[in-house]
C-alpha cells in the first residue's frame, strides 16, 4: 500500500531526497534478535565534503537530543562530513568513524589543518533495540557510506531499523517536491528518521485516524512520549546559511501536520543544506557563490519543505514492516494493522 500524496506540489522523479542532484543515501542495518538498529548516511555530493563544504542551517524545534556537531554548523553554516544517523548510544562511535574517514582522505586534519566537525544525529530506538549492547561499530558507518546511492530503501532499514512512529513501526522516510520560483525550477528533498508520536495523535493527509486506531489497538496511552525525529532537507536552490536555517524551520510545519506536538521527551531537530555551490576549505581558493535567491521568493520553497517533510513521515510509516526486538517488544507495521485506514472515522 502506498502513502497518499500530500500537498499541492508535484514530487520529483523518485519522490526522495536524492531527486536533488548529487545527493546519495546509504544504510547499514543490524537485525539480530534484541539488536535492531543501524546507520544511515546522507552524502551531499560525490566529492570530499571537508574540502568542498556545502552551506547548511539548523533549526532545533525541541532540543531533547544528543547529536554531535550542531554547534559548529550553527556558527559557520557549512557541513564538513556526510550526515550520519544512528541510535542514541552509538553517536560517539559513528562520530569517531567520521573523523577517521576524513583524516584518511586528508592526513593534515588535526595537524597543519583544523580539526573536522563530525555530524551525527540520533533517535532513541531502545524500545526495540538493546542499546546497551553497543552493537554499532565504526565498520557500519563505512558500510553505509559504501552503499550510498540515489536509490535506497525506506522504512525499517539503517538507522530506522528500531524506530517507532505513533506507537507503530517507524524509521527512514524520504520525499521531494518541485517548485518554480525566481524564474527557475528548484527541488526540495526531505529525509526523516521518524521515531515520535502517540497513536491517538496520528494524522494522515489531514485525516485524524489515530483516535480510531487507538480504540482498537494496544496503545501506550498512559506513558509520555519519549521519541524523536530528525528532519533533513536538501535543495538545489542557491541559498546561504541564514536562508537555509529559515528553510529548516519550516520542517516543523510538516511535522505538525502529522499530529506531533513536539512532546517534552521528543528531540526534534531539522537541518537544511544546499547543493547549489560549495565552500572551499582552502582559503586561497575563491568561493564560486552564485547569485542567491531573494528572501521574498522563498515562500514556494517553504511550502515544499513542509509538504516534503509530511510526505517523508508518511513514507516511513507506510514502508516499515513489523519488527520484534528486545525482550519480545513488537512494533507493528502500519499497513499490516490498518490496511483499511481510509475507512477509519475521523476523531470528533
UniProtKB/TrEMBL annotation:
Keywords assigned by UniProt, alphabetized: Aminopeptidase, Hydrolase, Protease
Q: Which InterPro entries match?
A: ArgJ-like_dom_sf, Peptidase_S58_DmpA
Q: GO: which molecular function terms?
A: aminopeptidase activity
Taxonomic superkingdom? Bacteria
- EC category name: hydrolase
The protein's matches in Gene3D superfamilies, at most eight in alphabetical order, are given as:
L-amino peptidase D-ALA esterase/amidase
Q: Does the keyword Chaperone apply?
A: no
* A Pfam short name: Peptidase_S58
E.C. numbers: 3.4.11.25
**Stored SUPFAM superfamilies:** DmpA/ArgJ-like
UniProt-listed CDD domains: DmpA
> Belongs to which family?
Belongs to the peptidase S58 family.
Q: What name has this protein been given in UniProt? A: Beta-peptidyl aminopeptidase BapA
- List the source organism: Pandoraea terrae
